[in-house]
Write a structure and sequence with these properties.
This protein is mainly β. The chain contains one helix and six strands; from the N terminus they run E-E-H-E-E-E-E. It has one helix at 41-47, and strands at residues 7-16, 22-34, 74-78, 91-93, 99-105, 109-113.
Length: 122
């Protein structure tokens, strides 16, 4: 069966940056609606006419994905600015700052990204 618009696809992936460093890896399939707004356009186009079990290697430029990296959206914040319970990847909001993802936990300082963690990666 070929993949066509208006169908549901189950995907796994390995996401790497331009240097080949793994940024994200998903072994358990996640379902997406092809033809909706669940997937980036370049990924939707690449999936069409492929079959179940096919493997694709795609390269996305920042403008095809989450946009250019914006250093001004990286904040170093003290521990007391965050909720009591924290895990990497949590989506949180900081008063008077921005909404984004907790990127890296360190002993006393946390790196908070207001932009997507893969913005600017090619």
């Amino acid at each position: 069966m070929n993949i066509t618009p208006d169908c549901v696809v189950a995907l796994t992936w390995v996401l790497k940056d331009a240097q080949g460093q793994i940024l994200d890896e998903l072994d358990d399939p996640v379902e997406f609606y092809l033809g909706g707004h669940d997937l980036l356009e370049k990924i939707q186009m690449a999936l069409q006419d492929h079959q179940v079990g096919d493997q694709l290697d795609l390269h996305l430029e920042p403008e095809e994905a989450f946009g250019d990296f914006k250093e001004e959206l990286i904040f170093l914040e003290p521990r007391h600015a965050f909720p009591a319970v924290l895990e990497e990847g949590m989506t949180i909001g900081l008063a008077f700052r921005a909404r984004g993802s907790l990127w890296r936990l360190q002993r006393r300082t946390y790196f908070f990204r207001a932009a997507s963690c893969i913005s600017g990666c090619a």
